[in-house]
């Protein structure tokens, strides 16, 4: 008899995320997950109730990488930067699950804890509760917009011919898409923080 059970919640989450990374969200099913783990599908339900519950648990592990400690230290600007950058990095590591996460925090404990820290830090810095909610939402628009699409890699101006003379070098963008995506994200993040700083309380 084995010392440890064949299945564990952690092993199930890891296998589920591997499938999502490889096959996408639609590629995950409880039957496929069971086959990946070498067990019967019924065995999974002793550890997780539904596929959606499993996705929330997987999401919680990914969001554990998001750093909101800047808000705890009382510096809302640093908090926005560290939260946005770590959030984007966490999503970039697992892009296939981004559409699920983009629906909002729902009942995910990990999401709600971090949102609570962000909101509390902004209110403590003098922002109204309404403004804090708007700032947190704006930050998520920026992070998820960046994670959902690579704008620069979609260009291939060679097919446009002479119709768009100002885009004559746009076909070069895919070669540096990763760098441009990073720099564009940083540009937008700093523009957000600069704009907020101009109207910051106190």
From TrEMBL:
Residues 29-48 bind DNA. It comes from Saccharothrix coeruleofusca. Keywords: DNA-binding, Repressor, Transcription, Transcription regulation. Gene3D superfamilies: Tetracycline Repressor, domain 2. InterPro entries: DNA-bd_HTH_TetR-type_CS, Homeodomain-like_sf, HTH-type_TetR-like_transc_reg, HTH_TetR, Repressor_TetR_C, Tet_transcr_reg_TetR, Tet_transcr_reg_TetR-rel_C_sf. This is TetR family transcriptional regulator. It comes from the Bacteria. Residues 6-66 form the HTH tetR-type domain. Transmembrane segments: none annotated.
